[in-house]
Amino acid sequence: MTPRQPRGPRPGIRPIGTNDPESGGRRRRPTRLGDLLPGVARELGLEAELATARGAAVWDALIAERVRPAVGACRLVGLEPDALVVVADEPIVAAELRMRAAELLDAFAQATGSPRRRFVRITRDRPITR
User: Which residues pair with 34 in a beta bridge?
Assistant: First the structure.
């Protein structure tokens, strides 16, 4: 038997160091998914939905920080040029949100970097009846 001769790298396997995004090879740094979403949403015509989803995440964080009794009892459902549209499950939650509207509007504008809206529009979540 003849001893095996060393072979070069197998097809599909790169030499050590070539998968490193910092190396000067042909590969580029991976792009974060969060950086791709705005462009994809724009191409699909879903910018408003993406803005609402991001706003809802900020709203939930603000409520958890500033109005703890309202956690889980209200949610942001829309962004209008002059208002945040919020659904409140109970009248007492709606009253608390109205009392703290100025504080919440300021905090929302600061957290999102968007212009401050003038008011919070609060609606009741009504079950569908048949």
Answer: none
